[in-house]
Amino acid sequence: MSLTGPDIRNLCLAALAFAICALLPFGDDGYWLGLGVTIAMFTALATSWALFSGPTHYISLATAAFFGLGTYVTGLGIDTLPFWSLVGIAGVTGAVLAALVGLATLRLSGVYFVIFTLGLAELVRQVITWVQNNSGQKGLYVLTDLDEAGIYWWLLGLAAVVFLAGWLIGRSRLGFALRIIGDDETVAAHSGINTARAKVLLFMVPGAVAAMTGAILAPRYVYIEPSLAFAPILSFQVVIMALLGGASRLWGPVLGVIPFTFLLEAVSSNFPNQTTLVIGVAFLVIVYLLPGGFVGLLDRIKRRITARGAL
């Protein structure tokens, strides 16, 4: 793969942006660092979600299932294995689960896939709850010396890897195949593309990333239990942020993550019981006012400016 001038420029700008973001813990170790952890978490989750759902148009609500699985990998192994190895194990576990789910469901389409992924988190939560009830254990303590700054750098590094992976996939045959699948899956199949294999391969990416994100964030919770680790609202937040920013571009979800994180922070501080209402309103805004997210809005503005210039 040869790099063009714009490619090198974009890679340098992305590296510079991540380097600047990495300096945040040196400037603040309180509120803003906590907000930075949240933004880094949702950036990794929403961007990896858009890598699969953007080109294929499959709406996955399975993020909470993979995330919770990752937190339990850390909770179960933190006393015996080094933290970095648990993050890797969580990624492999999430990818394997995503492959199994993909093999079982990605031949489905539309609402059937959405319903299955929504039920997956609840299924895994109920299984873990049943196991814990039978073992007499209600939750897991995750006690490490990893502080907020360490968690932030781990998440920022994961987000950088997600962006690099997305950039490489977008220039690969897999990315090209998925764009054809998104346009018309029947045509893609008649063109000789193994649509099921392509979808399963890419579905493993958000599965692995969500599990690794959960593994990294587990020490922040200190104590994890199924209702916290597999909270369904996480899946909806990730979808809303990705769609609000725009899932058609690699950098699109970030445009939704940052403002929506600040909005959720303001609402949860002043109206702690209205967070779900905000998600509902945001969904209506996306459907009726921003169907392509902020990326679509910017594209429309650019086309109008170009059209006026041509007159």
Automatic annotation (TrEMBL):
Q: Name one GO cellular component term.
A: plasma membrane
Give the location in the cell: Cell membrane
Q: Where are the transmembrane segments?
A: 7-26, 32-52, 59-78, 84-104, 111-131, 151-170, 200-222, 228-247, 254-271, 277-298
Q: How does it sit in the membrane?
A: Multi-pass membrane protein
Gene Ontology molecular function? branched-chain amino acid transmembrane transporter activity
Q: Which UniProt keywords apply?
A: Cell membrane, Membrane, Transmembrane, Transmembrane helix
Which InterPro entries does the record cross-reference, listed alphabetically? Answer: ABC_transp_permease, LivM-like
The entry's protein name is Amino acid/amide ABC transporter membrane protein 2, HAAT family
Organism annotation: Roseicitreum antarcticum
